[in-house]
C-alpha cells in the first residue's frame, strides 16, 4: 500500500524545522509578498530563509514546496513570474500554483520545475485536473475541501496526476479559490492581496462579560467569556437572519481526518496536507507529530487502525474554535 | 544550543486571586523595566528582525499578567525598548493572559492561536501590530539564544 506524503505548513524557518523534525515529508512555504495566500505582516520567507530551509530539509531527505497561489493582478504580472523565477533559482522541489497564466509561464520558462495545482485553482473534477496536466504538465493537484470521499476516489480513478487532500486545519466556506467575502467588508481578499480578513481591519474589543470582533467596523461575532473564539472571517461570524442570531454560514472548526485515514490511503491519495502557515512552530510540531504517527499506524495495519485518544486530544486542542469536523468527506447527501 | 523540548511541561494554572489583588497594588514600574531589559538583551543578540523593529518604533505596548496583577508598559524608541512612566492613554497593543499561558507560549509548548481560540490569551488594539510581533517571536531561532545563564535555575544542572 502506497504511503501518502505528509505535507506540512511553515510560516517561518523554526516552523519548517519543526515540520521536518516531527516527520513531514514535504514542507510548503510562501515568499514575503502577495503572490501567496498567507501574506501576513512579519510572516513568510526571504531568500536567505528559503535557502536555509531547503538545506535543512534536503539534508534529511525531505522536500520544500513554494506556494505561489494567488491570482496575478492586472498590470503586475511580473511580480508573479518573478516569484516563479526565484523559486526555480533557489532550487525548491515544486511550486504550487493556481493562476493558469502563472502556470503557463512556469511551464514554458522552467519546464524542469515540478508543478502542483493549488487548491485555490478550485479544480474539483478529473476533467479539470487532466486539462491542467495536458496544458501545464502538473504532477499533483490539491483538491478543494468540498468533495465527499467517494467523489475523491472517483477523481483518483480517472487521472494519473497525484491527488493531495487536506487532512487537518481551519476550513474555508465551500467556495475555495472563488471567495470574495473578505472583500465585501474590506475590499481585500486572498485572491487580490493574499490575505483573508487582513489584520489592519480587525478590531477585538474586550468588555467585562463579552468580547466583540469587528472587521472594518462590521460586527462579526460577540463571544461570551466562556465561549471559544475563531478567526475573524465573515464566513465564521454569527449574524441575525430572520430574527435568529447564529452561525449563518459555518461554525469555526478545524478539519480532522484521523478516523478516515485507512480509507484515504486505500483509495490512493498521494499526499495529505496540513493547513496553517499563519500558525506558530508549536502548532506545526504538534499537528505533524500526531499525523505522522497516525499515518504510519494506518499504513502498517489498516484493519487494526484505531484512533488514539491522545492524538485526538492534542489535535482538538489546537483546532480553530477548539472543535473538529470531518467536513465534506462524509457528507451523507449528494 | 537550547532544546526547548527539555523544558518541563508547564501545566495550565491560575494563581490564587489574592496574589493579583496584592500584585496590582504594588508599583508596576519595575516590571516594565525588567521586560524592557530582557527585550533589549534579545535585541543585542540580533535575533529580533530589524524590519519588524522599524515597524514598532514609538508604539506603546502593555503586557498584563492577570493572575499576578502585573502590568508592564513599554515602548520601542531609537533602537531600544524603554519602560514607560506615563501609562495614561490607550496602548497601541495590549496582551493579557495568566502567567501559565505566557510561560507555555515562550517555551513553545502552546501555540498563541490555540491560546487565543480557547480564550486564555486576549489581544486588543492594533491587530496588525499584534500579528507582526507574534510572527517576529515565532521566527526567533532559539539556538541563536544563549540560555546557558538561565539553565541552572530553570532546569537544574546536568
Largest sheet of chain B, if any? 5 strands, mixed
Structural class of chain B: alpha+beta
Question: What would CATH call the class of chain B?
Answer: Alpha Beta
CATH class of the largest domain in chain A: Alpha Beta
Q: Could you say how many structural domains of chain B there are in total?
A: 1
Largest interface: A-B, 40 and 34 residues
Structural class of chain A: alpha/beta
Computed CA radius of gyration of chain B, to the nearest angstrom: 16 Å
Total number of domains of chain A: 2
Give the averaged pLDDT of chain A, no decimals: 94
The CATH topology of chain B: Nonspecific Lipid-transfer Protein, Chain A
How does CATH name the architecture of the largest domain in chain A?
A: Alpha-Beta Barrel
What is the approximate shape of chain A? globular
Explain this structure.
The complex is a heterodimer of chains A (334) and B (158). Chain A has 334 residues and is an alpha/beta fold. Chain A has two domains: 5-171 and 253-330, TIM Barrel (Alpha-Beta Barrel), CATH 3.20.20.380; 181-247, no CATH class. Helix content of chain A is 34%, strand content 21%. Chain A is built from eleven helices and 15 strands. Chain A has helices spanning 13-21, 47-59, 77-90, 100-109, 126-136, 149-157, 181-186, 190-193, 261-266, 281-300, 309-318; strands at residues 5-9, 26-29, 63-68, 94-97, 115-117, 140-142, 162-170, 202-206, 210-215, 218-224, 238-241, 244-247, 254-256, 271-274, 324-325. Chain A has an eight-stranded parallel barrel, surrounded by six helices. The relative contact order of chain A is 0.15. Chain B has helices at 17-23, 29-44, 50-55, 99-106, 112-117, 127-138, 151-154; strands at residues 60-65, 70-77, 80-83, 93-97, 121-125. By secondary structure, chain B is of the alpha+beta class. Chain B contains seven helices and five strands, in the order H-H-H-E-E-E-E-H-H-E-H-H. The model of chain B is unreliable at 144-158 (pLDDT under 50). Chain B has a five-stranded mixed β-sheet with strand order 3-2-1-4-5. Chain B has a single domain (14-152), classed as SCP2 sterol-binding domain (Nonspecific Lipid-transfer Protein, Chain A), CATH 3.30.1050.10. The two termini of chain B are 14 Å apart.
Amino acid at each position: 500500500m502506497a504511503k501518502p506524503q505528509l505535507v506540512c505548513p511553515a510560516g517561518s524557518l523554526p516552523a519548517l524545522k519543526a515540520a521536518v523534525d516531527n516527520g513531514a515529508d514535504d514542507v510548503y512555504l510562501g515568499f514575503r509578498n502577495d503572490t501567496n495566500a498567507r501574506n501576513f505582516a512579519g510572516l513568510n520567507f526571504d531568500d536567505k530563509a528559503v535557502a536555509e530551509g531547503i538545506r535543512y530539509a534536503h539534508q534529511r531527505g525531505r522536500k520544500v514546496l513554494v506556494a505561489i497561489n494567488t491570482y496575478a493582478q492586472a498590470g503586475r504580472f511580473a511580480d508573479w513570474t518573478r516569484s516563479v523565477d526565484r523559486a526555480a533559482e533557489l532550487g525548491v522541489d515544486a511550486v504550487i500554483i493556481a493562476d493558469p497564466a502563472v502556470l503557463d509561464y512556469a511551464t514554458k520558462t522552467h519546464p524542469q520545475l515540478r508543478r502542483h495545482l493549488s487548491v485555490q485553482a478550485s479544480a474539483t473534477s478529473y476533467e479539470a485536473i487532466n486539462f491542467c496536466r495536458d496544458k501545464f504538465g502538473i504532477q499533483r493537484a490539491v483538491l478543494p475541501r468540498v468533495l465527499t470521499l467517494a467523489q475523491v476516489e472517483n477523481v483518483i480513478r480517472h487521472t494519473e496526476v497525484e491527488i493531495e487532500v487536506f487532512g487537518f486545519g481551519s476550513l474555508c466556506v465551500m467556495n475555495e479559490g472563488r471567495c470574495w467575502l473578505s472583500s465585501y467588508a474590506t475590499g481585500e481578499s486572498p485572491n487580490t492581496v493574499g490575505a483573508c480578513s487582513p489584520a489592519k481591519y480587525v478590531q477585538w474589543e474586550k468588555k467585562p462579560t463579552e468580547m466583540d470582533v469587528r472587521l472594518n467596523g462590521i460586527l462579526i461575532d460577540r463571544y461570551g467569556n466562556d465561549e471559544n473564539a475563531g478567526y475573524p472571517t465573515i464566513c465564521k461570524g454569527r449574524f441575525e437572519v430572520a430574527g435568529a442570531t447564529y452561525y449563518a454560514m459555518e461554525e469555526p472548526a478545524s478539519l480532522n481526518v484521523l478516523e478516515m485515514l485507512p480509507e484515504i490511503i486505500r483509495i490512493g491519495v498521494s499526499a495529505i496536507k496540513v493547513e496553517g502557515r499563519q500558525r506558530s512552530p508549536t502548532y506545526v510540531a504538534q499537528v505533524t507529530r500526531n499525523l505522522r504517527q497516525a499515518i504510519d499506524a494506518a499504513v502498517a495495519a489498516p484493519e487494526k487502525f484505531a484512533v488514539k485518544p491522545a492524538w485526538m486530544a492534542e489535535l482538538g486542542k489546537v483546532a480553530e474554535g477548539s472543535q473538529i469536523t470531518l467536513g465534506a468527506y462524509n457528507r451523507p447527501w449528494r | 544550543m537550547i532544546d526547548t523540548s527539555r523544558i518541563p511541561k508547564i501545566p495550565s494554572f491560575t494563581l490564587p486571586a489574592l496574589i493579583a489583588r496584592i500584585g496590582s497594588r504594588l508599583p508596576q514600574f519595575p516590571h516594565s523595566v525588567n521586560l524592557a531589559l530582557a527585550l533589549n538583551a534579545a535585541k543585542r543578540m540580533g535575533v529580533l528582525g530589524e524590519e519588524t523593529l522599524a515597524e514598532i518604533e514609538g508604539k506603546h505596548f502593555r503586557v498584563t499578567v492577570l493572575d499576578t496583577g502585573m502590568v508592564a508598559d513599554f515602548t520601542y524608541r531609537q533602537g531600544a525598548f524603554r519602560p514607560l512612566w506615563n501609562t495614561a492613554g490607550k496602548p497601541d497593543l495590549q496582551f493579557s493572559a495568566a502567567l501559565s499561558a505566557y510561560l507555555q507560549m515562550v517555551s513553545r509548548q502552546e501555540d498563541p492561536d490555540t491560546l487565543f481560540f480557547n480564550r486564555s490569551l486576549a489581544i486588543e488594539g492594533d491587530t496588525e501590530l499584534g500579528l507582526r510581533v507574534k510572527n517576529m517571536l515565532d521566527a526567533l531561532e532559539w539556538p541563536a539564544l544563549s540560555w546557558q545563564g538561565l539553565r541552572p535555575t530553570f532546569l537544574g544542572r546536568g
